[in-house]
Design brief:
This protein is of the alpha/beta class. The chain has 7 helices and 5 strands; from the N terminus they run βαβααβαββααα.
Length: 202
């Protein structure tokens, strides 16, 4: 992500992964990750303000206003990403597009990139990713399985848009990529006629 970007999400996997990456491995400490559920705690908001002096969010007892957080960051020219749609208000309030395993929030004052641009950028991102080890079984190891699903979700979203535009060959390739990341996910309705063979789970 861009220097100084804001990443918004929720859940133990995300918050502890980011803490480990930034505090232990000293990776991308310019990026601010905010867990929306933690905004309920004044100490967490105060901590974020100390770590990121430009963080303008104010704690309000009993409220976790992530919409205000995102809008404020966009107004200050920060790139904003979501780890996923964590509630319906966020899904409907902002235009987004997949960017690696994240969703890039589109500034209302800027244009949405063309589908070709989004597809090309994700191809570049995914060339740097590696699928290591065996494919997990969700019934045995749901935690490991959940880590792979955001990568699959990107290609499912891209495949859907390509299918809508009649680009069946590209849609099939996108679906194949999604299956490589998370073969246990049921095929989306739009892909019933495109579905390639799934790899066997070990």
């Amino acid at each position: 992500v861009e220097k100084g970007a804001l990443v918004v999400g929720r859940g133990d996997v995300k918050i502890w992964s980011m803490l480990h990456a930034q505090q232990v491995r000293r990776v991308r400490r310019d990026v601010q990750y905010v867990d929306v559920m933690m905004l309920a705690y004044r100490w967490y908001v105060d901590q974020q303000r100390r770590l990121h002096p430009g963080f303008a969010y104010r704690h309000t007892p009993g409220r976790m206003d992530s919409l205000r957080l995102i809008l404020g960051a966009l107004r200050r020219g920060r790139a904003v990403y979501l780890t996923g749609y964590y509630n319906r208000r966020v899904r409907t309030a902002f235009a987004t597009y997949p960017s690696g395993p994240l969703l890039r929030v589109v500034d209302p004052n800027q244009r949405m990139p063309e589908l070709r641009e989004i597809l090309d950028s994700n191809r570049r991102f995914f060339r740097g990713f590696r699928r290591r080890g065996r494919i997990p079984r969700p019934s045995v190891d749901p935690w490991s399985a959940s880590l792979r699903e955001p990568f699959a979700a990107t290609w499912r979203a891209l495949g859907h848009q390509l299918h809508r535009r009649g680009a069946r060959v590209l849609a099939r390739r996108a679906l194949r990529q999604s299956i490589l990341w998370a073969p246990w996910l049921a095929a989306p309705r739009w892909a019933k006629t495109l579905q390639p063979r799934r790899p066997k789970l070990r």
